[in-house]
Amino acid sequence: MKATIWAGRNSVEVQSVPDPKILNDRDAIVRVTSTAICGSDLHLYDGYIPTVKHGDVLGHEFMGEVVEVGKGVHNLAVGDRVVVPFPIACGACSACDRDLYSLCENSNPNAGIAEKLMGHSPAGLFGYSHMLGGFAGGQAEYARVPFADVGPLKIEDDLTDDQVLFLSDILPTGYMGAEMCDIQHGDVVAVWGAGPVGLFAMVSAILLGASQVIAIDRVPYRLDLAQRLGATPLNFEETSVLGELQDITAGRGPDHCIDAVGMEARNSTTVVDAYDRVKQAMRLETERPHALREAAMSCRNGGTISIVGVYGGMMDKFPIGAVMNRSLTIKTGQCHVHRYMRPLLERIRKGEIDPTMIITHHLSLDQAPHGYEIFKHKQDSCTKVVLNP
Prior knowledge:
The chain is α/β, with parallel strands linked by helices. 28% of the residues lie in helices and 20% in strands.
């Protein structure tokens, strides 16, 4: 079959790789009908996630048709149409029992590697390094889905792939980012990053009762889309984010700050941006935490910082003093996607959320390298690329 593989830093290729096979009675094989390039994939593409190897199949946002099931899978049948969550979860461990599916204790066969970097291992993830399981991803014609009796969500109506594909990751991730804020009526929410996750976090914050949502980014077409979705745009290259947020909130700061950027944040107008970029390039730190620093300094006393942007290791010069002395609460995590898929599917059915609004490009799988380039460099007003194998 054809698949998108990691071919080195800033390089992906579409190559022929072996077809996936049932390896466990709880496996299923899915013929992929739609998959997407995620902002998290760019961290792999840029070479900042360790333990990625040449030839690894990428992609963790995918859906398709079940073509084979293991003997232990009784809830799915050949021909079922499913969306697959990006964390792999067993459904029976202590973490899964608490609906903390991205922390599954049984799905990462390489837990020992993750423990050396993180202390404890999270769940295995599709297409996201050997540290997180070494599982082949979904930017391919077919994918093996472990614990298929737990993860995939059947789509039993006429909703299109475009309407439901993002239940695999970015819609639940954005929603969880807003939910972690415990938004009350009248709250002001600032969101760093107007990419796909940030946009879904903005929509979710409005659904959950925020009176004002502020979108912080530097790309005009992304800020325009955020404004159309109901957010107040703030271009950090044109103004002081801290100053503007103070003015908007009468000096208090936003009640909640959502970091939807992660480890490759930047602001070329600041000296510390150059510092972070040099240290990251030299592998002296793994993160560029500008957005997170700014969120910590901006948030009102007693407010919440919600982190759904991906971080991989260590950061430098984080203002922990501001967090401690001003009673800020930090909530974070890889999304526990399984928890949110069905409720968000109902919101889609009711027309409360339209996931298709972020899609700007449909490409064939063969065009994946082009998709990565335009997504990374924000060419051709690219917000989200969907690949159709």
